[in-house]
Write a structure and sequence with these properties.
5 helices
Length: 111
């Protein structure tokens, strides 16, 4: 991938999904970083730990001033339309995991 390819691909997919902007901010690859930080805020992770996880400097307030984006609280989540579980891909993964589990399980007669 070339420089900027990931960002361009994400913006293309966000456009196709009908959510090129969230809270008047264009969806970019930094949106993933903001999402992780915002989830940590929601679950009470202190700023110092978020700085470490996000590779921001000790004492930086970037995580809380720039990357805390609690959009859509109490409203329709635009990402709810993205299938996370279900569909043919999920079924294929479930089957593969089940087969892997069977293959790695010890046989009853091996004791």
């Amino acid at each position: 991938m070339g420089e900027g390819s990931l960002n361009e691909r994400l913006q293309h997919l966000a456009e196709r999904a009908g959510v090129p902007y969230i809270d008047d901010k264009k969806v970019t690859s930094h949106s993933w970083r903001a999402g992780a930080n915002t989830d940590m805020v929601k679950h009470g992770v202190p700023l110092a730990a978020r700085n470490k996880a996000g590779r921001w400097a000790d004492g930086s307030r970037t995580a809380e001033l720039v990357y805390d984006r609690p959009h859509g609280l109490g409203t329709d989540d635009p990402l709810s339309k993205v299938p996370v579980h279900g569909g043919p891909a999920h079924a294929a993964v479930t089957r593969a995991r089940a087969e892997d589990t069977r293959d790695s399980a010890p046989n009853a007669g091996d004791h």
